[in-house]
Amino acid sequence: YVMAHAWPDAARCASHAPLFQPSAWTYEHVADLASWLRGWPFWIDLATDRSGAGARITHASMLGLRDGVFKETHDSELSRKWGSPPPQVFCVGHTHQPLIRSLNGTLVVNAGAVGVPFDGDPRASYAQLTHSRAGWRAEVVRLDYDREQTARDFRDNGFLEGAAPISRVVFREWQLSCGLLYGFMAEYAAPIRDGRLTLEQAVDRFLDMVGSL
Q1: Contacts with 8 (C-beta within 8 Å, 6 or more apart), sequence order
Q2: Between the chain's N and C termini, which has fewer beta carbons within 10 Å?
Q3: pLDDT per position as a tens digit, 119-173
Q4: Helices 21-30 & 167-176, crossing angle to 10 degrees?
Q5: Are 93 and 76 in contact (CB under 8 A)?
Q6: 192: alpha, beta or left, given left = phi > 0 and alpha = psi -120 to 50?
Q7: Phi then psi for 43, rounded to 5 degrees?
Q8: Are 102 and 135 in contact (CB under 8 A)?
Q9: Pairing relation of β-strands 124-132 and 99-103?
Q10: How many CA atoms within 13 Å lie on the side-chain side of 150?
């Protein structure tokens, strides 16, 4: 989402830009790293034995940057997501929902998210993996941190002002540890683009609805 703003064909028309202001604001603050970030591989394979089938690490899955692994992902679909040959351990993120699953000899680990987990647990989430002669072992680690300071950081670093008004949806995601932006876009992107609602009105309505749930 962030690096899309570096692409020559990035959507910059007035009707689209406000919807992507959070990622645009972020890109402006990491633009000097753009070339380095674009050079990252789509996936990494770490061989742990002579077979070469060790750990495979990617953002969402081998099917795409936004094709993630969930707890409810069916076994037949999961095996497609880790690619070929099957790795011993498949490490992903993207969904912000931590999990550990095992299927046909492959250990699947979703690290969740350090900053904004989407499983209702506000603690930071990361995955710790250990390899030994016995194979792979995985653990999802949760850590408390100073959330009051983080709330101040949202304001003090200029994000809430610079990425407004949709930054309020992102902030609410962080407060609730629950994914909201996808639902907001699905419900309100079209009315905003065709002029039936302003972005400010849409954000107000959406957050009122979230607050009433």
Answers
A1: none
A2: C
A3: 999 999 999 999 888 889 999 999 999 999 999 999 999 999 999 899 999 999 9
A4: 90
A5: no
A6: alpha
A7: -150, 165
A8: no
A9: unpaired
A10: 14
